[in-house]
Design a protein that fits this description.
Elements (H helix, E strand, L loop, with lengths): L4 H9 L3 H22 L3 H18 L9 H19 L26 H9 L3 H12 L4 H8 L3 H26 L3
Helix pairs in contact: 1-2, 2-3, 2-4, 3-4, 6-8, 7-8
Length: 181
């Protein structure tokens, strides 16, 4: 969809319903995928998405065009999702590991579809899933993640390491299942 970002934001600031609908239609699909990376249930993800867009429209006056609109919206969606998880106690973090495991080099199969990968990420324990998404996908540093989630930097690193190890095992099992083993 081609649109003028500035014109769209200005329309939303005027509470123009057509502009709001265009903004929602332009970004809702991508943002639903973001929500689904953190929660297993599509219903939960849709609820979070709806709450996120309410916040987007409430805060649209604060958007200053200093970053792409999609990045600004995504940050609101991620923060809304984290607040949802925190409020609903959907993640717990294990004790910090004494030693963070070595980086796990994983080569993703060409045959592994993004929906399969999303499903594997959704199967991670909630704490691991949140840290994995924030670090590997959203690009936050462990110090930032620790601050966002109210955990130590070491816990963030250990949860990420655990998530990678679990994903590696799940990918191995996935490949073995595909090959009939």
């Amino acid at each position: 969809m081609v649109f003028d970002e500035h014109e769209l934001v200005m329309g939303c600031r005027r509470k123009d319903r057509v502009s709001q609908r265009r903004l929602y239609d332009a970004f809702a699909g991508r943002m639903l995928v973001v929500c689904l990376r953190y929660v297993k249930s599509r219903d939960e993800a849709e609820d979070i998405l709806q709450e996120s867009f309410i916040k987007v429209f409430d805060k649209i006056d604060t958007f200053r065009f200093e970053c792409p609109l999609v990045a600004w919206i995504k940050r609101i969606v991620v923060n809304t999702t984290l607040n949802y998880l925190r409020d609903n106690r959907r993640y717990r973090f294990t004790e910090e590991l004494d030693h963070v495991a070595e980086e796990v080099a994983t080569t993703f199969s060409e045959e592994l579809h993004w929906k399969d990968l999303l499903q594997l990420v959704q199967e991670l324990p909630p704490g691991c899933r949140a840290v994995f998404n924030l670090y590997a996908i959203e690009g936050y540093q462990h110090q930032e993640i620790a601050s966002m989630l109210g955990i130590s930097e070491g816990t963030s690193k250990s949860q990420y390491s655990r998530a990678k190890s679990l994903l590696q095992r799940m990918l191995t099992n996935h490949r073995m299942t595909e090959n009939g083993h």
